[in-house]
Structures are given as structure tokens and as C-alpha cells.
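Entry 14. Structure prediction run on the chain below.
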Amino acid sequence: MSERRSRKDAARNREAVLAAADALFARCESPADVTMADVASAAGVGKGTLFRAFDDRAGLLRALYEARLEPIREAVEAGPPPLGPATPPTDRVPAVLDALLCFKLDNRRLVLALEEGGSPSPYRAEHYERWHSMLRAVLEQIPALTDSDFTAHALLAATRADLVEHLAGEKRVPPERMRAQLANYVARVLASGPPQDPARLSAE
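Output returned:
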């Protein structure tokens, strides 16, 4: 009975912490302003409870990110078109990137905090590697593209949190315009043929 109650308390504390962190990041001016002490206070738990559940600030950010991204990930992995596996690759690639952009627009502070912290390189982060691997696999199904690995990196760069924050926050670009710009960019990339060899171009 005591062990069951302990598990329930831990689950309840985890949900309280995620909700508190979610609210704090939504209201903050800068992601760096939100500390673990702030989250613990808002959730009504001790800092020790927070660290036991998430290890550190990066662990908390990852947990919150994964919780909010879960519906999109499920749709991409097993859902219907346009995100699911049955979608033709030339339709699925722009749909996945649009979904990622919309997610980052809706969660600007959280995603910026995650991409700015944690791993020394954002390209080594688990969430980035997962999206890159998925996108690369879909791009490999498009015969006209010969370098799916680099193309996946280039397309994901268009949805980076710092770029989204710059355009949406500093430039005041409306979300629908950003989505249209991304769609046009992706369409041009997917319609392009095999790249020319730079060495050959310089020789000519």
C-alpha cells in the first residue's frame, strides 16, 4: 500500500512539475530566466523532488518537450496522411516540416530553451537525431534527391528555434506567412534535380 501511494505521489508530482514548467516558459521573456527553483516553487514541491524526477534542468526541458510533442510524433509514426507512413514522400516531407514549424511557433520559449541548452551541439541532441533520421529516410524515397542526409539537415535548419524566434519575435512575421515561406522553400528543394559538382563548376 505504501509503495503504491509512493508511486502515485511521484506521478502526481511529475504532472504538477510539468504543468508548472509549461506555464512558466509560456510567460517568460527569456528561457534562461526560468530556474529549477522557480519551477519547484510553482509546482509546490521541493527542489530535491524536482532533481530526483528529472536529474537537471535539461532533463526537465526534454520531458516537457516530449510530453507536448507526443501527438505529433504518434501521427508521424503511425497516423493517417498527411503525416503518417502511407503518405507519398513528396507530400509527407512538407507536412512533417509544417507540423514541426507550427509546434515551435506554439511552444517558442520551451523549444528555444531546449535547443539552447543541454548537449554541447544541438545536432547531437536525441530529439534532433530522431527527426533527422526520420526525414532522411523519407527523402531517400525521392529518386531526384541524391544526398538525403544533407538535405534533411538543411530542411530542419529552416525550423530551428532560434530562427523561428528571430522571425516571429523580432521581425514580427505572421505565422501563416512563415508557413507559406517554408512550404515554398521545401517545394523548391524537392523539385530540384541532382546537384552539380562544385569542383566541375569551378573548372568550367
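The chain has eleven helices and no strands.
Filed with the rest of this week's runs.
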